[in-house]
Amino acid sequence: MFIQHIIGLFSNPTNEWEKIREQQKSGDRSGVGFVFILAAIPAISGYIGTTQVGWRIGVGDPIRITGESAISIAIIYYLALIIGVFSIGWVIHLMGKAYEVEKPLPLCIALAAYTATPLFLIGIMQVYPVLWLNMLLGLPVLAYTVYLLYSGLPIMMEIPAERGFLYSSAILAVGLVALVSLLAMTALLWGMGLQPVFTN
After folding, report:
1. pLDDT at residue 29 above 70?
2. For the chain, which residues make up each domain, given as ranges?
3. Which of 99, 107, 86 is nearest to 20 (CA)?
4. How far apart, in whole angstroms, are the C-alpha atoms of residue 41 and residue 154?
5. List of residues 6+ apart from 188 with CB closer than 8 A
6. Cβ–Cβ contacts within 10 Å for residue 162, how many?
7. Of 1, 20, 64, 137, whose CB count within 10 A is highest?
8. At 28, phi and psi to the nearest 5?
């Protein structure tokens, strides 16, 4: 079922958001579990890219990290993605009161999960960690993710588009703060000795 939703979000987002909303309202919570599968795409791809392919700075040899180091980073990455989706869903649920709408938490988590789907899918590019290529493909995907948030939130929460715009903007701001916090936490962990171990 979630594969049909993913295809629909790319082919006809408005119609697909309505289907997702009705599925959630019917009590079918199975759609949220797909995030555990999709979150593995960037984590596994990152593991392969950093251990097998590596990345280059200039014309030097590829830089790789050890498998032991990469597996711990991949696990933390996977958990961070899942926690991030569920946290944003929780924030959507909590902020609903400020925008005069209260929806069940599973519906809010489904909104966050389906909104993040393009980012999970583009995670396959981490198999080939070339910065310019990842940026070239990643920026349009990021823009489409923002579009899904702005188009999906009013439909899922059943509010007017004007109120949905403000609500979506608030959620986007929270997401950006969470991203900056995650980057700061990564820097702190590296400073505490949990940095990657590079191969010779």
Report:
1. no
2. 2-194
3. 107
4. 29
5. none
6. 9
7. 20
8. -80, 105
Neighbouring C-beta atoms of residue 80, cutoff 10 Å: 16
**Residue 59 DSSP class:** T
| 27: helix, strand or coil | coil
**Contact yes or no for 156/21 (Cβ under 8 A):** yes
Burial of 38 (0-12, 13-18, 19+ CB in 10 A): buried
Copy the structure tokens of residue 191.
């400073």
Q: Rounded to the nearest 5°, which phi and psi values hold at 57?
A: -120, 110
Alpha-carbon distance of 193 to 195, in angstroms, equals 6
Q: What is the tens place of the pLDDT at every residue in 141-184?
A: 999 999 999 999 999 999 999 999 999 999 999 999 988 888 78
The model's pTM is: 0.89
Tell me the residue type at 154: P
Q: What span, in angstroms and rounded, lies between the C-alpha atoms of 117 and 141? A: 10
Cα torsion 37, 39, 42, 43: sign:
negative
